[in-house]
Amino acid sequence: MTLRETLPILGFLIGAVLVSLFVTSNVVLNFLVFTLILAIAAQGWNLLGGYGGQYSFGHAAFFGMGAYVSAILQQRFGVNAYPAVAFGIAAAALLGYAIGAMVFRAGLRGSYFALVTLAFAEVLRILANATEITGGAAGLLISLNLGAGNLQFADRSSFLILGAVLLAFGMLITLALEKSRLGAQLVAVRENEAAAAALGVDILAVKLSAISLSAALTGAAGALYTQYFLYIDSNIAFGTWISVEALLAPIIGGAGTVFGPLIGALILQGLSEGTKMLIGKIPGLDLIIFGVLLILVVRFPLHRIPGLLAARWRGKGTP
Amino acid sequence: MTGQGRDPAFLAVRDLTKRFGGLTAVSEATLDVREGSITGLIGPNGAGKTTLFAMIAGFEQPSAGLVLLDGEEITGRKPHDLAKLGLARTFQIVQPFAGLSVRENIAVGAFLRLPKRRDALALSEEVGQRLGLGPQLDKPAAALTVAGRKRLEVARALATRPRILLLDEVLAGLNPSELRDFLPVLQDIRAGGVTILMIEHVMQAVMSLCEHVHVISGGRIIASGEAAEVVGNPAVIEAYLGPGAAQRLAAHA
Ligand SMILES: Nc1ncnc2c1ncn2[C@@H]1O[C@H](COP(=O)(O)OP(=O)(O)OP(=O)(O)O)[C@@H](O)[C@H]1O
Ligand SMILES: [Mg+2]
Fold it and tell me: Does residue A141 or residue A94 have the better pLDDT?
């Protein structure tokens, strides 16, 4: 990974700081923070789905794990927010590893893998809805305790910077993966498992590394969600909505690229908010629009654009 | 016949059997591959050649029998473990990473022994040049011709720095001039210290490359020996041309 390769990520961070300095509208800031949370969750999905070709329909499991574990530790056990968030991320990674160990060892691929991940997320949602420690159906409210020491901020622009730093970190991990042996092996698994195995790729180990990393990043998005909204319930944390958006954003913005998840999240949220403003809030309208968008993207591969730009960017300096 | 113990073979296959339900694709196959040799495995279509390779390389579990590499039993080990031990195979039906460039394809093999990207890409370039893929290195693998894809199969396997290469019909579908270019490449690989076991239908290539040939038919090894000697063997002629063919040929001569 060279400095030049990280420049676009640096540019994104600087842009985010500038926006946080000059944009004062709460509506806009709220939109951006929420988009960043989505983009981080989507970046997690992208590691496993975009690079590894393993299309999970249940990334809500990891998002919810990150959100709930950090929330429960803070609210029920009085743990400080920073270690609570770290534990939330670790728990999500562990869950990813455990689910991976079961489904990949069983050799599940393609739509079977997608369905089983969806089932795991749904089971967790039902459990979270029924148990006491999670607050059950009423959800879990985090006590307001403003201050950087508690990772709670009164102003949205601080969250914007926090989200941008976290996403930039996710992008750096993705970029480092792209340039690493693990990344090459992961892409090889996506392209052809038999050929990869013949070349010495330990398919199971590569998939397990990928799903753990992927789950950690999506779990971080969940923990950030908790800090920002200070409230979660089972339908938010383990709901299908986040599985769908974490998957759609990279596919629309460019699966298997560093910037794809962010671009996709901006498009998804932009459309969703735009229609809300124009037509008003109609339940399910988002999904209809996302569905149409997905069909368009699959039909016209506009999502190649970031990849092509990246190729051009890389190609510039080479002799 | 096998010389076991006296002169242990580099790759030794003992009574290897594979049953697919009622069909016995490979039946008690026993063969040796001497270190540093180019050894041929020939036989009619459906004889069980690819299945034998698949068992040796860990892609199919044998129903019975043993495989030994350099004296160590490797029967039924995972393909990636065998690759680490230095056993690499190519696929008869080529399996390129279609979405990746030729260079990236070869690099996946190179990464096996070289953890650093820079080193893996350097080896990838070197192997690609050696296999005559230099001009195509940055093209997508999907854009290669049949001959190019066969070369890519060999290049990727070679980039894992194997001790033994199992080549499954890498010369099939090449035109005469491509064939002429490719034979020295294989000899060069062997000269580099890599033992080769190759399945091949192109007899001209078998005769010029292989010092030793095993013939498989109906899942059984029916003959083993020097190339020239084996192709004159009546059992082999009958395996290819049908019962009685050897006699008819002899009568003609
Ligand atoms: N996975 C499988 N399941 C069932 N039968 C199989 C399987 N693989 C191979 N066979 C059968 O085993 C026999 C041997 O097949 P194999 O591919 O090993 O032959 P081959 O010698 O490589 O032939 P060719 O020269 O056509 O490549 C054939 O009858 C084939 O149909
Ligand atoms: Mg075959």
Answer: A94
Q: pTM score > 0.95 for this model? A: no
Contact at CB, A179 and B104, closer than 8 angstroms: no
What domains can you pick out in chain B, each with its CATH number? 11-95+163-251 (3.40.50.300)
Domains along chain A? 3-261 (1.10.3470)
B96/A198 Cβ within 8 A: no
pLDDT digits (tens, 9 = 90+) for A180-212: 999 999 999 999 999 999 999 999 999 999 999
Chain B residues with CB-CB distance to A187 below 8 A: 97, 99-100, 104
Residue A54, Cβ density class (10 Å: 0-12 exposed, 13-18 middle, ≥19 buried): buried
The Å distance, Cα B168 to ligand 2 centre, comes to 7
ipTM: 0.91
For CA atoms A154, A155, A158, A164, give the dihedral sign: positive
- Chain A contact present for B157, CB below 8 A: yes
Between residues 48 and 77 of chain B, which touch chain A (CB distance below 8 Å)?
A: 57, 59
**Distance in angstroms (rounded) separating the CA atoms of residues B204 and B212:** 14
Residue A230's Cβ-count burial label (10 Å; 0-12, 13-18, 19+) is middle
pLDDT of residue B152: 96
**Over 90: is that where the pLDDT of A2 sits?**
no
Contact A199 B108 (CB under 8 A): yes
Q: Is A136 left (phi over 0), alpha (psi -120 to 50) or beta?
A: left
